[in-house]
Specification:
Blueprint lengths: L2 E4 L2 E7 L3 H6 L14 E7 L5 E9 L4 E6 L3 H9 L8 E5 L2 E7 L9 E4 L8 E6 L7 E2 L3 H7 L34 H10 L4 E8 L8 E4 L2 E12 L2 E9 L8 E3 L2 E7 L10
Parallel strand pairs: 1-10
Antiparallel strand pairs: 1-7, 2-5, 2-6, 3-4, 4-5, 7-9, 8-9, 11-14, 11-16, 12-13, 12-15, 13-14, 15-16
Length: about 270
């Protein structure tokens, strides 16, 4: 039996003879290197190297599909459209597909595109299906909790937009060997320099707080809380915290004590 959970993602389709070169020059990962039906995580950065969009890209024979957080598709559309000048690229928002994360045997699904994606489950895959396809499955256990316990950041779910990829665990979505894109100069400097001031960590709180709540050391802001979820009679979250904090530093978020559970998460995301 398949276990499945729907994903709240929107789809942007790119066509035209320049689609691959164009998206390769707009995002952090190696779009040119994708095989047909291959996918990867990719980020859109600003000129300072800060994250604006956290995406997944699927290459098909005649197009590219870009998956983004539902509700942000129009902003992404406008962001990409702004840089189409003489390129043969057409953009369109599509609503004729549905996307699921599944665990189990998916080979019997008709008209499905299966993408290996690490969301914290062993052998989990994202599955793209036609909008009218029926999915017969058992519910997949809490997808968000599994993601957080696995130390897998999501720039949108965790409100990590505005951070550098290296600060919030998303460096594996950055290719240092590709050509130019917006923010690439900053990425090259960081590769040469090494450590950033912040790192992704998992924390525990006695109560829930809002996503994006600043983490304080006394009155000094030293980080930010991501998505918070109940776990084992407490609350757990991913957080971006300064690297130079003492191991037992007395941290708070909205006056709630914050305990660091896992420092410097180094999970080597499986993003391809």
């Amino acid at each position: 039996m398949i276990q499945a959970s729907p994903l709240e993602l929107a789809v942007l389709r790119l066509t035209g003879s320049d689609r691959i070169a164009f998206l390769h020059g707009q995002t952090t990962n190696d779009i040119r290197g994708l095989p047909v039906l291959g996918s990867c995580r990719a980020l859109v950065l600003n000129a300072r190297g800060q994250i604006e969009f956290d995406l997944r890209v699927l290459r098909r024979t005649d197009d590219l599909l870009v998956f983004c957080r539902a509700g942000l598709e129009q902003a992404l559309f406008e962001r990409l459209k702004r840089y189409i000048i003489f390129d043969d690229v057409q953009l369109e928002l599509r609503s004729d597909w549905q996307l699921w994360h599944m665990v189990g045997e998916t080979s019997s699904l008709e008209n499905a595109v299966v993408m290996p994606v690490n969301r914290g489950f062993t052998d989990g895959v994202d599955v793209l299906l036609p909008r009218d396809a029926q999915v017969l499955s058992e519910p997949l256990p809490n997808l968000e909790l599994t993601r957080i316990l696995a130390g897998l950041p999501d720039a949108h779910s965790d409100a990590f937009l505005g951070f550098l990829p290296q600060e919030c665990g998303l460096e594996p979505a950055v290719s240092y060997r590709k050509g130019c894109y917006i923010g690439q100069e900053i990425m090259a400097r960081l590769e040469a320099r090494g450590n950033t001031r912040y790192a992704l960590q998992r924390v525990q709180l006695g109560q829930t707080v809002e996503i994006g709540t600043p983490v304080l050391l006394e009155t000094r802001e030293v980080g930010q809380i991501g998505a918070v979820i109940a776990y084992e009679r407490a609350w757990t979250a991913l957080a971006v915290l300064r690297r130079d904090l003492e191991p037992m530093a007395a941290l708070t978020a909205a006056t709630i004590p914050v305990q660091v559970l896992v420092q410097e998460l180094a999970h080597h995301l499986e993003l391809t």
